[in-house]
Design a protein that fits this description.
The protein is mostly helical.
Length: 396
């Protein structure tokens, strides 16, 4: 324990020590990893350290260093994650959001899902696509070699049933942060903590929707009306968590209609599935619409749909496919790689090209179904035209 306390004290003071220290830990035993995890939580929970700098506008350097160390070491070695995740949950229950920085670093390092303050137009277009396009073109660093680490994080969250509670607590903390944090906190710091809650919630929610199976996500995440009534989540957060459930339910209804509706065309089954699921969603949120002047149809439609549902970044898909084709051609001229390595990388590029094409086709079909439903239902969107524009701006 004394050794780890000294090592942790160094990485808290000098962030350039983090990578060398992490590399040196490969000789530890499983028991030593458990001791180090305990010492890390103990350092985070130390009452003798201030988590904000003296000017009260930024998080302390030691917390930032320790958060980066946690993410790096958890990704590289098979260390128990449950204790650290439970610590973050306990802090959120106590109304403290400083340690969300640790969760953000762990998720980013182990899954490759980045939080970006400034993005290019090309990245924005990629983020409107499917999972594969987002991973390949939506971030500054390529998502590589995170399969095992993201699987360990997923198992830690699911085995201890911590995934959904973390989402709910982050959403609740975001709305109450100005009331539960220290009243003496500087306004600039409160703004940063609010942004950190929002960013980490989006990052973590994206991780769950990507790494849980659709059926598992649908089973674990509460329905939209429960999120808003029982857990008091705001509209944007509740629908953000509900979107993967909506897509899964639409596909489930389509499969059910295919089996039961003989003689109907595929497009008719698709249209019926979208219509049935959207109507069920609208009825569930009807009592929750904040203004009588606005139709539940436009309220549910606006908050349910994402950019993925209404627009296909076809050019971005083509650019990424061209990039993979160019990379495959360059491999033929690369004499530094041996034949087996070159073949392996070329097969990876070919597989990526095929998967991107399939993902583009799926998104086109999905977008076509959604937009057809919007066109068929738009007459019910604005019932009180004299109040609708101003009310729409207020609640949407």
């Amino acid at each position: 324990g004394i050794l780890f306390e000294y090592v942790l004290s160094q990485v808290q003071c000098y962030d350039n020590f983090i990578n060398p220290v992490v590399d040196s830990l490969k000789y530890l035993t499983p028991l030593a990893y458990d001791v180090m995890a305990y010492c890390t939580i103990e350092a985070l929970a130390s009452p003798d350290k201030q988590k904000i700098k003296h000017e009260d506008t930024n998080l302390s350097q030691w917390l930032q260093g320790l958060a980066t160390f946690c993410g790096t070491v958890m990704r590289k070695y098979n260390i128990e994650l449950t204790g650290l995740l439970q610590y973050v949950i306990n802090q959120l229950k106590a109304g403290k959001s400083f340690d969300l920085l640790v969760l953000k670093e762990v998720v980013m390092k182990m899954s490759g899902i980045e939080l970006m303050e400034e993005v290019t137009q090309s990245q924005l277009d990629a983020l409107a696509g499917g999972e594969l396009l987002r991973a390949e073109g939506g971030y500054f660093s390529q998502v590589r070699n995170t399969k095992k680490s993201s699987q360990r994080l997923r198992e830690a969250l699911m085995d201890a049933s911590l995934g959904v509670p973390l989402c709910l607590l982050m959403a609740q903390q975001r709305e109450s942060i100005i009331f539960v944090e220290n009243a003496a906190c500087h306004l600039k710091l409160l703004g940063k903590l609010y942004d950190q809650c929002q960013d980490t919630l989006v990052q973590f929610g994206g991780f769950l929707s990507t790494h849980l199976t659709p059926a598992d996500y649908n089973q674990r995440v509460p329905p939209i009306d429960e999120l808003m009534k029982k857990y008091h989540l705001q509209t944007d957060t509740a629908f953000f968590l509900n979107r993967p459930r909506l897509i899964y339910n639409i596909h489930s209804r389509m499969e059910s209609l295919r089996r039961s509706s003989k003689g109907k065309t595929e497009s008719a089954n698709e249209s019926d599935a979208v219509d049935l699921e959207m109507r069920a969603l609208i009825e569930s949120v009807r009592p929750l619409v904040p203004a009588k002047e606005i139709s539940p149809y436009v309220f549910a439609t606006f908050w349910s749909l994402s950019l993925y549902d209404i627009w296909v970044p076809e050019q971005r898909y083509q650019d990424e496919i061209a990039h993979q084709e160019q990379a495959a051609q360059e491999l033929d001229n690369n004499q530094e790689l041996n034949a087996s390595k070159r073949k392996k990388e070329k097969d990876r590029c070919d597989a990526m090209i095929k998967r991107l094409g399939e993902e583009l086709h799926r998104q086109k079909e999905h977008q076509s179904r959604i937009m057809q439903w919007v066109k068929d239902s738009n007459k019910t969107f604005f019932l009180h035209r004299e109040h609708s524009p101003s009310t729409f701006i207020l609640v949407c």
